[in-house]
## 1
Amino acid sequence: MKKSSLFKELFVNIKTTGAVTFSSKSLVNKMLSFADFNGAKVIVELGGGDGSITRGIVERMDSDSVLYVFEISEHFCRNLSRQFASKNVKIICDSAENLDKHLNGQPVDLILSSLPFSLIPKESRTAIYEKSRLILKPSGFFIQICYSYLLRFQFASYFSNIKTAFTLKNFPPAFIIICNT
């Protein structure tokens, strides 16, 4: 799929993508540096977008791991399905607030997210936070890319341990929030 087509989707649906451009390779690498993929068997990505984070996850995950990628844009889902046609990568064209319905009770090792939480209605945002915390293993991590440090305080209601990192190597510069229970 042409990159121009993906950029068009990004701008047409800015309320759901929440970004003016896709995540830089530098941001993806920094985000994923906080995740321990060794032995992580069930991994969830919230907001697959153009696949830049998905690609980084697939390159790092064990061959017997399963990655569930949640994306609400049908356009992005079609593109992701073409890019990642593999039995251990599941592209799910549905809202992240329904993640529990697709995981069938499986505990999750890692949740990696680029969801625009500041644009998501409070009720949906709360459901995503609560369900993420419930399905995450006690040793698991929820790692979020965001553009506002204030988002950290929303996560504090659901996760007891929160760290943040920052990178200028993205447009716009971004925060990474690393959470666990």
Note: Residues 122-135 form the longest helix (14 residues).
## 2
Amino acid sequence: MTYIRAFIVGGIICVIAQILMDKTKLTPGRILVIFVTLGVILGAFNLYDKLIEIGGAGATIPLPGFGNSLAKATIKEVKESGLIGVFTGGIKGTAAGITAAIFFGYLMALIFNPKIKQ
């Protein structure tokens, strides 16, 4: 049942993004920013945690989950370090995920010989 809930929650997030791309003039970059910002706002008010309880990885993997991670890490760092935590919290909280994305992206580029889109 956990997998089904994750699939449904993640799928709903992706469907919302697809509808925004198809029915509005928003560019994918702007939709990305909206999703991350929405995740930050919902995470700051502890609302995204309820979605994570329901959807698990279906809520943490998409872009709003990244925004939630930024918000949680920044709030924690501000409590521990004060105002400087505003600048360091998001970096510390998401460094592992960003590093993994860069590393595995580079590794796949080495293995699969990427081509430029014509």
Note: The chain has a mean pLDDT of 91.
## 3
Amino acid sequence: MSSDEDTLPGGDEATAAEYVLRLLPEDEERVFERRMREDADLAQDVEAWEVYFSTLAEEVPAEVPPPGVWSRIESRLFKSPQRSLRRRLLPHLGGALAAALIAWVVVENGLLDPSPSELVAQLSPTEGALTFEARFQRETGVLRVDRLEGAAPEGRVLELWLIADADSAPRSLGLLEATDGTVLSLPAEIAQALPGATLAISDEPPGGSPTGAPTGTVRAAGQLPSA
């Protein structure tokens, strides 16, 4: 492996990097391993890449991935030969080859959530066409509700409700802005009830429900994941 990090790898050195990252198709991997047993320089390249790639993770905090992530990565990478794509990627990744490739696989294929602490729910129409997306950040207690489609009936406002479970009465989280997005900073006692809870939106008279419970039509609802 070259000591000059500005020099892009190529030829056997690039193949050695692909071998370490398990990017070679099975038949090419077997051929490469036979060559490596007979070529000390090739084996040295593999060892150098293994040491180099291992250093990329030294400053990354330990994180236990959800079960099945690695099998999904393997199935997406190796279900069919992708030699031309890998050959296009490798020269441009240079010294950050391993980290960039793993990030590309995970993000592009949706194998991991961009933010494990974020809970997302689609609030689908129950009557009419109002559609929303709710995103709750558990670490900060911030809930963002974005309107994707539809509008409040004329002369009415939209109010957001939390239904913690089947036995709980709806609890108002506040009125939604007339614009498309509303950001709410929730107190800890309410925030801890959001995972797994149902969010519902009703239309109410100006100023919101006069009774503390929904009085108008429930226009959209959806459930946040529990984890």
Note: The domain at 118-223 is CATH 2.60.40 (Immunoglobulin-like).
